[in-house]
Design goal:
By secondary structure, the chain is mostly helical. It has twelve helices and four strands; from the N terminus they run E-H-E-H-E-H-E-H-H-H-H-H-H-H-H-H. The protein folds into two domains: about 100 residues, Glutaredoxin, CATH 3.40.30; about 140 residues, Up-down Bundle (Glutathione S-transferase Yfyf (Class Pi), Chain A, domain 2), CATH 1.20.1050.10. A four-stranded mixed β-sheet has the order 1-3-2-4. Strand 2, helix 2 and strand 3 form a beta-alpha-beta unit. The two termini are about 15 Å apart.
Length: about 260
């Protein structure tokens, strides 16, 4: 597979046309992967831009993310640029933009029916939002990323049960949908909730290399995901349904194996 090309953050910000998304080559940062998967489903061509790493540049003594903050008033991954519009950094805005600019013949990921739409956004929020599954996964360990998301000993101690509670809810949802003959989280068709959950579930239900390749850059993260899967609060509620849904959505609708760049192992 041909390695993807990445443009600089400055070049991405200066472009006047096209959809640009920031990535770290070789690293499957889950929010960036989820946005990439949304764009793949919506048939949106993307330009990959280099997302600056956290921390201080040893050579210059400067914050490596200072320019990103100047451009977007935040530093989280990913940033989404489209044409000359303002950057989008929040998942709800990225989803809305992807739905808007996607190909007319692509699947609708935000249902027209408001009751179903509420379900899509509600399920997505407990996966992606503050105090949701990924949020609590990030505060399991003390470190720069954990502190960014409010790490404390008390919050970290409570996190596994919260992750398990979200898993249990999603598994029950999949079971109820299966009973009514649907392979999807909401209604009878693919939605953003399926894409988000299938992508984020890799943090607690690791995917094989045929879906998520191993690189020099992501091998440590993959080990972290393996450890998450063994947490008692996770392992006791993990079910074959969650794994089956993950594999079905990623292999049916998304680009697999994932294209990461970096240094494959």
């Amino acid at each position: 597979m041909t390695a993807p090309e990445f443009v600089s953050l400055e070049d991405a910000a200066a472009m006047k046309t096209g959809t640009r998304i920031t990535f770290i080559p070789g690293l499957q940062a889950l929010y960036a992967e989820a946005l990439k998967n949304l764009c793949y489903v919506k048939k949106i061509p993307i330009i990959r831009a280099l997302h600056p790493m956290m921390g201080i540049d040893k050579a210059t003594g400067q914050d490596r993310q200072a320019r990103l903050y100047e451009l977007t008033s935040q530093t989280s991954l990913p940033t989404m640029f489209h044409n000359e519009e303002r950057p989008r950094n929040v998942w709800t805005e990225q989803l809305a933009l992807a739905e808007q600019i996607g190909a007319p013949d692509s699947p609708k990921l935000i249902p027209d029916d408001y009751a179903l739409r509420a379900e899509v956004y509600g399920l997505s929020a407990i996966i992606l939002g503050e105090d949701g599954l990924v949020w609590n996964m990030r505060i399991l360990n003390d470190g720069p990323l954990g502190r960014k998301y409010g790490y404390s000993e008390a919050a970290s101690a409570a996190a596994p049960e919260k992750v398990g509670a979200v898993l249990k809810l999603l598994d029950e949802r999949l079971a109820a949908q299966e009973a009514r003959g649907s392979a999807y989280l909401v209604g009878d068709a693919l939605s953003a909730a399926d894409i988000y959950w299938a992508t984020m579930s890799m943090a607690v239900c690791p995917a094989p290399p045929s879906i998520m390749p191993v690189t020099k850059q992501n091998q440590g993260m993959l080990q972290f995901f393996e450890a998450n899967a063994k947490l008692p609060a996770v392992a006791e509620v993990m079910s074959p349904r969650i794994e089956a849904h993950q594999r079905f959505i990623l292999t049916t609708y998304c680009e697999t194996p994932a294209v990461l760049g970096g240094d494959p192992l």
